[in-house]
UniProtKB/TrEMBL annotation, chains A, B:
Start and end residues of each stretch annotated as Disordered: 202-230
Domain of life: Bacteria
Annotated Low complexity bias: 207-222
Matching InterPro entries: Pyridox_Oxase-rel, Split_barrel_FMN-bd
Stated name of the protein: Pyridoxamine 5'-phosphate oxidase family protein
């Protein structure tokens, strides 16, 4: 991720104000950048015929813009190009195991971005956006794999969403019932952390047997996952 | 998950028909049950003032019903109790690294459920639904932790969503460009698998030092994650 902005605050709007669990909310730009940099899959929410549709899709975040494929929700985005979308990125960090069922929860980091996506038509920006999207999921592949041809570029619908209206929610730490009456129950409480990790590379069976993977993939296959920016 | 139904097909509706990537779509009930059983976090899509809102939240799936907390999207669901929602559950299984950037993608399993959530008001069903939700994320905790009091139960808004209108999309296997012109480029191609795993338990600092975790948590802390049904 380029140009991480620290200390800047995102504007608070009617949609991004934290009503519930206010203590976990953040409008800090650096927090948003960090959550977006830590993943590559978002859930895109659009409205189709008045009902919501939530589609998983890959994204790339670069400075103030989030890029994603326009084809994933084509019915909606083609039908109403000026419509607002909501893009949500969530990382689950662990289960919060409290003394009471009522206080059980999840440690997580989540970002919600609202806005009206702009179709990227300029060929140069489209290449840059696709590079951003590709490198977010698979760093090193833009320089290694064959880049899009003019025909492929024309067939790709890329959308750009401003990060100006966004909010972050983060929960960390132990359960909240460590100092109440339930603490006297003698029950174990704490957090069961959840991690993601890359497994060993699985070569395409169509490959020649002696074709070794490039270093950027071989190195990654032995590393913790989901944190391309770390 | 109780009563997995094998061989049953979900009805195809205008919303669940697979338009894109048809080969990956499924309306098989067993496939839906498997995707839902493999996780505990969904992305809930609702419409608020005409714009979509996508909120991460925990769920429980039991037979034909998906349970989730009504408080997560209170603004919308309280304002329009008859509104349709979309619940999406996604598991990322790996990166598909093709010879061309254009063919890059993700191996994943995803379920989308559409419907109008029903508020659960019967105390017995509410307890059963909360048990389902708790056990999906943290098996064994319903019997171990303190169960909800009458007051806590009254303060909990639980929603039930039928699984009757749902669809599944799954992508597995190597990239699709193993037999085209790009196969001659001499580039490595294949899949970089992504796994989730539980880490070591983190005891609440407020606990007495000699309080050992129960077996169902200690055992799980050393196991692959995200597959409570497996």
């Amino acid at each position: 991720m380029t140009s991480p902005s620290t200390g800047r605050a995102l504007p608070e709007t009617e949609r991004t104000r934290h009503r519930r669990l206010r203590e976990q909310g953040s409008l800090d730009r650096a927090a948003l950048d960090a959550v977006l940099a830590a993943g590559f899959l978002c859930h895109l929410g659009v409205v189709v015929d008045g009902t919501p549709m939530v589609v998983p899709t890959v994204y790339g975040a670069d400075g103030g813009t989030l890029y994603f494929h326009g084809s994933v929700a084509s019915r909606s985005l083609v039908a109403s190009p000026g419509a607002t979308v909501c893009v949500t990125v969530t990382h689950v960090d662990g289960l919060v195991l409290a003394r009471s069922v009522f206080e059980h929860g999840v440690n997580y980091r989540s970002a919600m971005v609202y806005g009206t996506p702009r179709p990227v038509t300029d060929p140069e920006e489209k290449l840059a956006g696709l590079r951003c999207l590709t490198e977010q999921a698979a760093p090193g592949q833009w320089d290694y794999a064959r880049r899009p041809s003019r025909k492929e570029l024309a067939a790709t619908a890329l959308l750009a969403l401003s990060l100006d209206e966004a909010s972050v929610k983060i929960r960390t730490g132990p359960p909240d019932d460590g100092d109440g009456a339930d603490a006297e129950l003698g029950l174990w409480a704490g957090v069961l952390p959840l991690h993601t990790a890359w497994g060993p590379l699985e070569p395409d069976p169509a490959l020649p047997a002696d074709l070794a993977p490039p270093a950027h993939l071989a190195d990654r296959a032995a590393s913790p996952a989901g944190r391309p920016g770390a």
